[in-house]
């Protein structure tokens, strides 16, 4: 079976997913306040997006390493609530749907997202 990386569309697919997920977060009433400030800091936004691409690529069996912070470190001090976490996952699933990602791949992504919960929520 193709790797998760391949099923997400490789580098091009992952770059599009990241762009659309970040844009969805910026429009999601529940979490937009966390993300819209980055519109005024395109350099920082591009750095975070680069880390998101690397995180997804290396975590899905693609090439290269992740150079960003650990999940606990990246989200430390934000005190992200369960409702916010669910809102972010909703955005991710909506974008996967739009890309017609198959149900099994969608489940795998959901599983990965849930496995990271304790390092992201309320840290
Ligand atoms: C499955 C869930 C999530 C994953 C996999 C994830 C992943 C990441 C990654 C890889 C980074 C980049 C870290 C770096 O640049 O070093 C990041 C940054 C960030 N995340 Fe998340 N995240 C998740 C959920 C959330 C949620 C629920 C929120 C808030 C509602 C959030 C808010 C942020 C913010 C604001 C940053 C930028 C931090 C900075 O400026 O350095 N994340 N996330």
UniProtKB/TrEMBL annotation:
A Pfam family this chain is assigned to: Bac_globin
Record key words, sorted: Heme, Iron, Metal-binding, Transport
Entry-linked PROSITE patterns: GLOBIN_FAM_2
Protein residues bound to heme: 51, 75
Superkingdom of origin organism: Bacteria
Cofactor entry: heme
Parts of the chain that traverse the membrane: none
InterPro entries documented for this protein: Globin-like_sf, Globin/Proto, Globin_bac-like_CS, Hemoglobin_trunc
BP term (GO), one: oxygen transport
GO molecular function: heme binding; metal ion binding; oxygen binding
Protein name: Group 1 truncated hemoglobin
Protein's organism: Billgrantia tianxiuensis
Lineage: Bacteria, Pseudomonadati, Pseudomonadota, Gammaproteobacteria, Oceanospirillales
